[in-house]
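Trying the structure run again after the queue cleared.
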Amino acid sequence: MMHKSALLGLALASSVLVGCAGKTTAPEQYSGFLADYSQLQPLEAASGEPVLRWVADGFDVNNYASIMVEPVCFHPKPQPSEQVSAQVIDDICRYSQQQLTAELAKVRPIVQQASSDTLVVRAALTAVTTANEEWQPYEVVPVTLVVAGAMIAAGKRDQQVSLYFESEAVDGGTSQPMLRAVRKAFGENLSNKDAQLTLNDVKPVINRVTRDARLVLQ
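Done. Tokens:
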């Protein structure tokens, strides 16, 4: 008969399997940063990662001579935690602004004030989360599940870092939305639940997301 602790480990691991995080933002995770989410469609970004996006009929970036990038920040601003400090939250905002501006500058000149031929880009990070790493196919065997379940209980399982982004591009003359996007993307894994998140852990994902934003407009 299987030992009680092994059964407990198997049950715990199985529950994690069932509850593995999805690859896109769920409707209940929308932040309210965007005025409307109803027309978002699942698509694939240039990087190959999933994204929810809507583009207005007739939108053409060639109608715009410049781009204005509004400040990128968290919406709503998260409370610091043991894994994510206030300094890291500020660093993530600053780096996201820097990278988005640099990427979009490759499409059109960046301006500080919008005119009728300016595309205004608004973007926000709506959450940063850490959770137990999703299971890989080779791990889904009973013995491994029991061992990994014990690791989760002890807080030693790798923590998967997720960043949530919401953005829109608005016509500078009419204030009408031209494009909206919602995306969940994954950063570097943390070694355990006590590890501190750093900017370097999420730089690669911010680079991918901002690069994809540029490619949508090119």
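Helices lie at 4-18, 86-104, 142-153, 199-217. Worth checking whether this holds up in the mutant runs.
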